User: Which sequence fits this backbone?
């Protein structure tokens, strides 16, 4: 890509990240008041403390885990607060528990179903999430796509699905998520879009391409799909 085009794309992303050039009232408010919000939330202090717990538990490991950044944990929490009302979250991949905590701190009444076939850092996850243990249900680890569809059919309120990692058949997971976003209003968050050997980028592209309504927002590493019927299909690449 030529330098002039790179500069133009970077400027466009910068402007949109501040709301410039966004004509949708919903998208403008979501970008400014949720993704880019600078206000303090009540759970921030707790999230920061739990991240320190994760780092302390993991300090002895020969391969230090890549723990979710505090910035992204706070942002995930804000998005969960913004679309509150669900009685159950669905999470694929544990990622040391910080993302679980960010979701469950958004609503003390909500539960979380965890699909996590292989976790090499279960000790970290258990320590970070021990205060939420009674609200976390472990799902059978043999059919991610089936668990996604079963969750969407039983959850009350707006489904909220977080994908940290894809284990197994990425195409089947993408098809299941695409079925959910085209059949009912929901929120889908996908992380680690740029991580090596991660299949979440393929899932992100597949689901985004199937939207019949709703919007997607991404900074290249994490993305949010807000599938709401009153929203036209629009995609935003931002800095947040």
Assistant:
């Amino acid at each position: 890509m030529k330098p002039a085009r790179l500069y133009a794309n970077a400027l466009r992303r910068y402007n949109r990240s501040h709301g410039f050039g966004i004509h949708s009232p919903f998208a403008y408010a979501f970008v400014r008041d949720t993704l880019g919000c600078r206000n303090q939330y009540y759970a921030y202090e707790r999230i920061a403390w739990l991240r320190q717990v994760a780092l302390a538990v993991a300090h002895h490991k020969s391969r230090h885990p890549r723990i979710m950044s505090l910035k992204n944990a706070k942002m995930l929490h804000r998005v969960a607060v913004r679309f509150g009302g669900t009685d159950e979250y669905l999470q694929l991949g544990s990622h040391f528990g910080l993302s679980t905590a960010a979701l469950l701190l958004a609503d003390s009444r909500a539960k979380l179903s965890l699909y996590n076939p292989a976790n090499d850092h279960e000790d970290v996850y258990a320590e970070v999430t021990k205060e939420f243990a009674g609200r976390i249900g472990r799902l059978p680890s043999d059919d991610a796509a089936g668990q996604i569809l079963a969750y969407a059919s039983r959850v009350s309120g707006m489904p909220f699905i977080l994908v940290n990692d894809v284990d197994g058949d990425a195409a089947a997971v993408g098809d299941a998520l695409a079925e959910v976003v085209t059949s009912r209003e929901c929120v889908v968050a996908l992380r680690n879009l740029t991580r090596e050997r991660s299949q979440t980028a393929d899932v992100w592209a597949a689901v985004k391409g199937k939207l019949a309504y709703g919007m997607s927002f991404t900074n290249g590493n994490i993305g949010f799909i807000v599938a709401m019927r009153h929203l036209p299909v629009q995609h935003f690449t931002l800095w947040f």
